[in-house]
Amino acid sequence: MLSVQNIQSGYGESMILNGVSLEVKPGQVVSLMGRNGVGKTTLMKTIMGTLKARQGSICYKDSDLTKTPPSRRAKAGIGLVPQGREIFGTLSVRENLLLGLEAGRTGEKEVPPEALQKFPVLPSMYDRRGGDLSGGQQQQLAFARALASRPELLLLDEPTEGIQPSIVSDIQDVIRSIRASGKVAILLVEQSIEFVKSVSDYYYVMDKGTIVAEGSIHELDEGSIRQYLVV
User: Fold this and answer.
1) How many angstroms separate the CA atoms of 173 and 23, rounded?
2) Beta strand pairing call for 202-207 and 29-33
3) What predicted TM-score, i.e. pTM, was given to this entire model?
4) Does residue 151 belong to any structural domain of this protein?
5) For the chain, does the N or the C end have fewer beta carbons within 10 angstroms?
6) Radius of gyration of the chain (CA)
7) How many structural domains does the chain have?
8) Is the residue at 231 inside a domain?
């Protein structure tokens, strides 16, 4: 589904990623862990195309997307829930969701029911401005907006960061249900080992712009991994 090979990327003169490689198989949930500042979000931006790769390749479903713009990657079936949610605060909940359709490849004009079934509180808030929602509600909106485009690969950049426990549990259930369907692959950036173990099939650990550990979730050794998560 996704193959990232020897990616180098950064900002200005600063190189953040130094030869990062990882893979996500169809229907698989793959988690990427590491402390703040090691390059996880930089990698997600590079995969989505909002940050250009300086070296290496990004292949999605056997197509090389390394030099394609973000819009083409979205049309190809990649959805993103960015760190910090990045919903449009002055637009209504419905308008935010409709923007998810614009990013997709299906040409639909109405939000697909399955995108809302996972977050049943959102339809009752259709006319409210996105900026008036709580942090947890905004995260649900960002998630539903990404699902509205019917992605085949979903990039989740710390979807539980700063969210109340009840919403974290809801997001956990949503990821599990997506995984159970086998229709959408997920690359998840997450700090919590417990959360990763509950939803993932495979994991990678990043430190200083490189992958330092990986394996099946059943092989995850918490003791050896925590050293890369503690500040």
Assistant:
1) 24
2) parallel
3) 0.89
4) yes
5) C
6) 17
7) 1
8) no
Contact 26, 189 (CB under 8 A): no
Query: Cβ(190)–Cβ(174) under 8 Å?
Result: no
Report the distance separating Cα 93 and Cα 57, nearest Å.
36
Name the token pair of 185.
Answer: 């692959």
Residue 113 domain-assigned (yes or no): yes
Q: Find the CATH number of the domain harbouring 64.
A: 3.40.50.300
Looking at residue 78, its amino acid is I
Cβ 9 vs Cβ 58: under 8 Å: no
Rounded Cα distance, 101 and 106, in Å: 8
The residue segments making up the domain with residue 195 are 2-226
